Amino acid sequence: MVTKSQECVNFGKSVRGYREKRGMSQEELAAAASIHRTYIGGIERGERNPTLRMIYRLAKALHIEPFMLLSKPDRQSA
Amino acid sequence: MVTKSQECVNFGKSVRGYREKRGMSQEELAAAASIHRTYIGGIERGERNPTLRMIYRLAKALHIEPFMLLSKPDRQSA
DSSP class of residue B47? Predict the structure, then answer.
């Protein structure tokens, strides 16, 4: 299901931003989080509404704290 | 389904803590977030694995930023 809520879009941008900062490919992040690569793509496009436990798995694979994925990049850079 | 993962238990404690800090009952929080009261109970007991959008709804109803529900209360108070 494609939700594309603003919350999911912002979350996806955060995941992509931290992934690229670490120089990881979607495949590498998927493997580190034990998630299918297409799911990572859906997350980054804001099409997925991940659960709390999924947020923790992604954060762990990115070596960051889970709350960091929910902070607003627009506000931080403004 | 009762998951009771540590992530969900910590999240539930955060929700309960912020709800009590605002002097809200579970019924009041449920109404403010347009969620059934029994769902709030399940969240606070750590039995639910909420989605990102649900985390945002709860945070809005509690008048806090979503990332605040994912910070670790144990670490903050230690």
Answer: -
Mind telling me how many Å the CA of A52 is from chain B's nearest CA? Answer: 6
**Which domains, ranges and CATH numbers included, belong to chain A?**
6-69 (1.10.260.40)
- What would the pLDDT profile of B33-68 be if each residue is shown by its tens digit? 999 999 999 999 999 999 999 999 999 999 999 999
- The CB density around residue A74, as the number of other CB atoms within 10 Å, is 8
User: Chain B residues with CB inside 8 Å of A11's CB?
Assistant: 52
pLDDT tens digits along A20-71: 999 999 999 999 999 999 999 999 999 999 999 999 999 999 999 999 999 8
Nearest CA to B33 out of B9, B54, B8 is that of: B54
The model's pTM: 0.88
